[in-house]
Structures are given as C-alpha cells and as structure tokens.
C-alpha cells in the first residue's frame, strides 16, 4: 500500500497555505477509475477487504499499490478481467484513464501505470429452469383441454 509521506499538491508563494494529500486517497481515486474501464470485472483484494465488503464497507483502493519516490509516482494495479476482452486494449485503456483521472483531480502525473492481470472471470451461464426442462412440449396448454 501507500507510503506514510503526504504529497504536497500546491506549493505556491501566492497560496494561503499548503495543500497535502495522503497517498491512500490517490489509491482510492485510481481504484475507482480502474473499475470504470470496460472489461474490468473487479480489483484484486485482500482477505481483509473481502471481509469488510461483506459488512458493507467498500475499500475502493483495493488492488492499487502506489509508490511515491520523491516527485515520481508509480501505480501497480491488480485486476480481474471479463472473459473475451482484449487484454492489451483494456490495459492501455486503464493506463490512459488512470493518468487522466489523477491529473484531472489532483494535478499530479503518474510516471508509470503497471497493469497486472490476476485472472479472467468467465461469463456465468444462465440457470436452467428445471420445470421448463421436463415440461410437456406437445403444444397444448392446460386451458385448451
């Protein structure tokens, strides 16, 4: 997860003070942006985030690991993709979307966005109706008799 140092967003002489942001907030921004990309099923989470989601506490920063090295920001994003999507297209879309959203919301630029595909989730087959499966298909309704 994110390191303990805050990131200074604006350090101008005309400002009335400094604006700092905690790196965990950036992870949340990146996590929400990543899930919004078409083809992304969900983000990888830990056991703690899974248990928290059962109790209604969503962790939007799960699956994002942000490294701050001076002024250099590197994001590692761990995702599950939908079956049948083009992995390179989705990964490129994620890199673009994450960079745009972070720049738009914080004026910070990501130097690297590393997309790690953890798995592919197949589409669920529709459940078969057992009664319809064994029903008489002779074309007669109960009302016609």
Explain this structure to me?
With 145 residues, the protein is α+β, with helices and mostly antiparallel strands. The chain has helices at residues 23-35, 47-54, 87-106, 130-133; strands spanning 7-10, 19-21, 40-43, 64-69, 72-82, 112-121. The chain has one domain (7-124): Cation efflux protein, cytoplasmic domain (Alpha-Beta Plaits). Helix content is 31%, strand content 26%. Strands 3, 4, 5 and 6 form a 4-stranded mixed sheet that branches. 19% of the residues are buried. The model is unreliable at 46-54 (pLDDT under 50).
Radius of gyration: 23 Å
Principal-axes shape call: elongated
DSSP strand count: 6
The CATH topology is: Alpha-Beta Plaits
Mean pLDDT: 78
Using the 3D structure, state the CATH architecture.
2-Layer Sandwich
What distance separates the N and C termini? 69 Å
Assigned CATH superfamily: Cation efflux protein, cytoplasmic domain
N-to-C order of helices and strands: EEHEHEEHEH
Number of discrete helical segments: 4
Helix content: 25-40%
Q: How many separate domains?
A: 1
Structural class: alpha+beta
- The CATH class name reads Alpha Beta
Largest sheet: 4 strands, mixed
List the uncertain runs.
Answer: 46-54
Strand content: 25-35%
Write the layout of secondary structure elements.
Elements: E1 7-10, E2 19-21, H1 23-35, E3 40-43, H2 47-54, E4 64-69, E5 72-82, H3 87-106, E6 112-121, H4 130-133
Parallel strand pairs: 5-6
Antiparallel strand pairs: 1-2, 3-5, 4-5
Helix pairs in contact: 1-3
Pfam families: Asp23
Family: Belongs to the asp23 family.
Protein name: Asp23/Gls24 family envelope stress response protein
């Amino acid at each position: 997860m994110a390191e303990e140092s805050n990131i200074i967003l604006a350090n101008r002489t005309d400002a009335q003070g400094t604006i700092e942001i905690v790196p965990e907030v950036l992870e949340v921004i990146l996590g929400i942006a990543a899930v919004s990309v078409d083809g992304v099923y969900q983000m990888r989470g830990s056991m703690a985030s899974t248990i928290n989601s059962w109790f209604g506490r969503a962790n939007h920063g799960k699956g994002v690991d942000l490294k701050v090295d001076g002024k250099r920001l590197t994001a590692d994003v761990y995702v599950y993709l939908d079956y049948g999507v083009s992995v390179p297209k989705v990964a490129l879309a994620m890199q673009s979307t994450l960079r745009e959203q972070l720049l738009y919301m914080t004026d910070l630029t990501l130097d690297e966005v590393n997309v790690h595909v953890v798995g592919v989730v197949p589409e669920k087959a529709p459940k078969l109706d057992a009664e319809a499966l064994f029903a008489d298909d002779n074309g007669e309704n109960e009302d016609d008799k």
